[in-house]
Amino acid sequence: MSDLIHDLRTWRFWRWFLIQTFSAVGVLAVLLELTNFIFGSLPIEGWPLAIIIAVVSVGYGLVRAWPRPIRQDYNSPNTRIEIVKGDLFVQDCNIVVGTCDTFDTSVPNVISKNSVQGQALERLYGGDTDQLDRELAAALQGKAVTSTIHKPGKTEKYGVGAVATLRNGSHRLYFLAYSEMNEANEAQSTPDGIWRSLASLWEEVSQTANGTAVAVPVIGGGQSRLSQVMPAQDSIRFIVMSFMFASRTKKVCDQLRIVVHPREFDRLDRLEVQAFLSSMRPS
């Protein structure tokens, strides 16, 4: 209910509501004028007619503008994108976990316990760092080490855009390196780095997901230190555009699900996000 009230308070809702309401008034006026011209009179006139026009127009405006789940289906490519409020780790699909280019896992010495990666370690691996390290090492076999770095923790760098694909029951975990680690164990990224890493992610998903939906967290905060440059709403646009461009080259998956933390979701202009998804349909 609070989400609905939030949407009803936005200027976008009221603008769209008024546009649709007055559009209905215009159409009804034309139809009534045509009816009067053909038959010479109307069965209802005066205030009763005005009330009927008002009720029908307002009802039409509400139906057209009423907030709905944030999702969009596309025919070209044949896929769906939806934005959901909730917990990334309860999604029944493939999951993307952001990490740094050294694939460090030590919590809390290197990786924050509250980060998406820290939560993945605790909730999917029961805090067993050794098991996660073994699976990451196996997934990274054959991938080129781009350089080494002198610091506590892991020292081999695989570069921004490296993806380690792990099994998670019947689904997959995509550990995506979208930030670069420095000697002080500080991870940083750039919009360009995130764009390149997303391109690598979609390539990996298209080859391994077999069409299964993939859930992605909002990228740009936390370890990447881009929350001021790329707030949640801009990050969502960024992810959507990257996914759509990749999907127009070849199919990535049947559904992209962007999972937004409740605190961030409540700050979104959800009608604007829906309008953006709709704008991504081919003209």
Automatic annotation (TrEMBL):
Provide the transmembrane region boundaries.
12-32, 44-63
Q: Which UniProt keywords apply?
A: Membrane, Transmembrane, Transmembrane helix
Query: Can you tell which superkingdom this protein's organism belongs to?
Result: Bacteria
Thoeris protein ThsA Macro domain span: 81-261
Query: What is the name listed in the Swiss-Prot or TrEMBL entry for this protein?
Result: Thoeris protein ThsA Macro domain-containing protein
Q: Which organism is it from?
A: Gulosibacter chungangensis
The major lineage groups are:
Bacteria, Bacillati, Actinomycetota, Actinomycetes, Micrococcales
